[in-house]
Amino acid sequence: MTRRANMAVKSSTEQRRGQEWLAKGGLRPTRQRLALATLLVGDGNNRHVTAESLYASALERGEKVSLATVYNTLKAFCEAGLMYEIAVDASRSYFDTRMDDHPHFFWEDDNRLSDAPAEELKLLSVPKPPEGAEITRVDVVIRVRKT
User: Residue 97 phi/psi, 5° resolution?
Assistant: First the structure.
């Protein structure tokens, strides 16, 4: 198979994965949603992205999309239950396509989020929520830096 044919097969597989992912969330596959979904899940791997990093990847691939659209689309993906938003601090959020409960390392040196081994985290209990509230999720972000 030629390199060009191999890239076309890879591209169609990635796009199919993006379409299936959108369908799983009940989202209409608009051109922009499909382009971003393909970038996020097309290769079958999970991702931790910021809106800015996904926007840069989209531009590199020649997609015509605004940063505002990327933000709105990521929020729609979260609302559809396709990914989680993880707030690292008041001004920075990451979006994670891996949906099971797991902790994260935040690498302060290069502003990167990565999965931490869930089997090593022992969370014995969480505080009771205030009256009239329920716990929807617990995010564990462990801040690290290189030594």
Answer: -85, -10
% the chain with pLDDT above 70? 93
Contacts (Cβ under 8 Å, ≥6 apart) of 107: 113, 114, 144, 145, 146
pLDDT at 129 over 50: yes
* Residue 54: Cβ-neighbour burial (10 angstroms; 0-12, 13-18, 19+): buried
**Inter-residue contact 113 to 46 (CB < 8 Å):** no
The vertex-125 CA angle with 119 and 131, nearest 5°, equals 140
Q: 84-89 and 92-96: which strand pairing?
A: antiparallel
**In terms of C-beta density within 10 A (0-12 exposed, 13-18 middle, 19 or more buried), how is residue 80 classed?**
middle
Between CA 147 and CA 4 the distance in angstroms is 44
> pLDDT tens, 20-65?
999 999 999 999 999 999 999 999 999 999 999 999 999 999 999 9
Sorted by sequence, the CB contacts under 8 Å of residue 146 that are 6+ apart come out as 107, 109
